[in-house]
Amino acid sequence: MTDKEETMEVSDSPPSEKKNGRTSLLDSGEDFEVVDEEDIDDDPPPLEDAGGGKGKHADESEKEKEETGPSAPVEEWLDVLGNDQLKKKVLEDGEGRDSRPQKGQNVRINLKTSLTDGKLVEEQHDLSFTLGDGDVIQALDLSVQLMEKGEKALIQTDAKYAYGARGSYEPEIPPNAPLCLEVELKEATDAPDLEMLPPAEKIALASHKREKGNVHYQRGDYAFAVNSYSIALQVAESSSKVDINPEEENELIDVKVKCLNNMAASQLKLDHYDAALKSCVSALAHQPDNIKALFRMGKVLALQGEYTEAIQTLRRALKLEPSNKTIHAELSKLVKKNSEQRGAEQAMYKKMLGNPTSGSSTQKHRAKSSWGLSWKWLFGATAVAIGGVALSVVIAARN
Predict the structure, then answer these.
(1) CA–CA gap between residue 175 and residue 31 (Å, rounded)
(2) In 10 A of CB 341, how many CB atoms?
(3) For residues 230 and 20, is the Cβ–Cβ distance under 8 A?
(4) Is 388 exposed, middle or buried (0-12, 13-18, 19+ CB in 10 A)?
(5) Predicted confidence band of residue 323 (pLDDT cuts 50, 70, 90)
(6) 276 by DSSP, 3-state: which?
(7) Residue 171, preceding peptide bond in cis (omega within 30° of 0)
């Protein structure tokens, strides 16, 4: 079963993380740590003589430095992550450190994407995204945080922080391809207040974030997909101070259910079965007859070994959509597995109890034999007694 959903272009951008309490995978710090330029010291500490003083030569050196001004940086490239896989070089200075964007802000950039052999792959003007939300490749999300407004920079990134081992069809990027990105930061603004956002814009924004999750899912980046779906849910579920009509409310619910279904699919890929089950339950709370939620819930229950509940859930889904071949196939597979499991359990119980069937039949045979002997003995004893009485009567008669 696949999610066929229309792609929606959204002009609005998501809210600030600080204002709305959102969390992002980029905040975890598990995979990388952003290095601030302030932490980089290009000049080695001054040498001292054996006596611990600076001496005459050191004083002359400092005086010369004051006259000539600060020395040029040793390295033009900034190693963003400290692993030589993501580097940034300033081409044109910006407006200063105070103009650097913050996570959760909306940024607008001009971008040229090229392969390392110089081939231009894509050129985008006025590309907008929310910094830190995973809307773009990691190389951009990390490097733009270190740019100043008006700055132009060249970014070299390993495939790990770009399109990875799968590459991309649009733009056309080969698998495992390192890239050169030419970026100009044009603008950085605060995200809109979700509570004051009109319902139509909120629906469009949540749908936009969900589509970003779909892109991550198609690339196999399931953890980032979950992150994008979570952000979309937070947008859709945020409280509103603006009136909303029933039709818009139903649209928001529809966006929520789509996000929850897609999140469950991503969590299944990550083997997070409990989380996937919760996502399915939440989706069914909004739409009890949602086929996709029922199908995924059945799969999760089956993977957890709950075959009986899984079969019941899939039968419920099949009743709603009898012609669905995917549900038919999954249900048949589960019924077979369930039968095999029950047969194996019965065999195990028999083995644990020492074959109770044969034991009970033996006991019955022994009991039957003992009863047969008892009746035979009783019959014989009775016959002897009757014979003795008859003999006594005959003797008495003769006498």
Answers:
(1) 21
(2) 13
(3) no
(4) exposed
(5) very high
(6) helix
(7) yes
